[in-house]
Amino acid sequence: MKNRHVMRQRAPSAWMNPILPDCKYCKQHNCVKPNLTKKKSINWLFLLLGQLVGCCKLSELKYFCKHTNNHRTGAKDRVLYLTYLELCRQLNPEGPSIDEVLIGTH
Q1: How far, in whole angstroms, is CA 70 from its chain's centroid?
Q2: 44: Cβ–Cβ under 8 A, 6 or more apart, which residues?
Q3: 73 alpha carbon, distance to own chain's centre
Q4: pLDDT per residue as tens digits for the range 42-87
Q5: Among residues 95, 100, 99, 75, which one has the least CA distance to residue 11?
Q6: Whole-number CA gyration radius for the chain
Q7: Contacts of 59 (CB under 8 A, 6+ apart)
Q8: End-to-end C-alpha distance for the chain, whole angstroms
Q9: Where does the DUF7086 domain lie (predicted)?
Q10: What is the domain partition of the chain in residue ranges?
Q11: Residue 42 and residue 72: Cα distance in Å, rounded?
Q12: CA dihedral in degrees (30, 76, 72, 47; nearest 10)?
């Protein structure tokens, strides 16, 4: 996390506004969003790998943070940042903890 100081615990605009796939039916560009119906059934790994976590509503991000015991108040860019950190931590448990990243001890 060498750029953590530059990010100021906020998700960059590329995370907030991900590039979406084009619709193969209507040929519209950057328009196909994941259909997230129930918070309990969101496939977070799919969203992470597709770089589509930013398509989630703030309430969905807060739901994820609640169930991973992470701080969940603040603007969407902050909650999205924490969501990405937690998803990466789950994929690499040996990496720095969220607290280490936020405090800057790692």
Answers
A1: 13
A2: 53, 64, 87
A3: 14
A4: 999 999 999 999 999 999 999 999 999 988 888 999 999 999 999 9
A5: 75
A6: 15
A7: 39
A8: 8
A9: 2-91
A10: 10-103
A11: 17
A12: 10
